[in-house]
Amino acid sequence: MRRAMATAEVGDDVYGEDPTVNRLEKRAAEILGKEAALFVPTGTMGNTIAVKLHTEPATKSSATTALTCSIGNWP
């Protein structure tokens, strides 16, 4: 594992320079039949992005969630 990590081709995924992330996003888009895909490192980050895309910004209560769910408790 260490050898694979040390010899892996890497880049900055923020600037679209990481070949592994680029391949992963391209493959995910192909599988889902979409134009593009976005890799996020956690499910919580993906859920937060989804909620923000589907709600109005800067509102006190943009979405109704269960009080115990992770996005309902996010600061």
Architecture overview:
43% of the residues lie in helices and 0% in strands. It has 75 residues and is mainly alpha-helical. The longest helix is centred in the middle third of the chain and has 14 residues.
**From N to C, what is the helix and strand string?**
HHH
Distance between the termini: 36 Å
- Rg calculated over all Cα atoms: 17 Å
Strand content: under 5%
> In one word, what is the shape?
elongated
Q: Main beta sheet, described?
A: none
Low-pLDDT runs of 5+ residues are none
Number of helices: 3
- How many β-strands, per DSSP? 0
Mean pLDDT: 81
- Helix percent reads 40-55%
The secondary-structure class comes to mainly alpha
Summarize the structure.
It contains 3 helices and no strands. With 75 residues, the protein is mainly α.
Give me some keywords for this one.
75 residues, mainly alpha, 0% strand
SSE layout:
Blueprint: H1 2-7, H2 19-32, H3 43-54
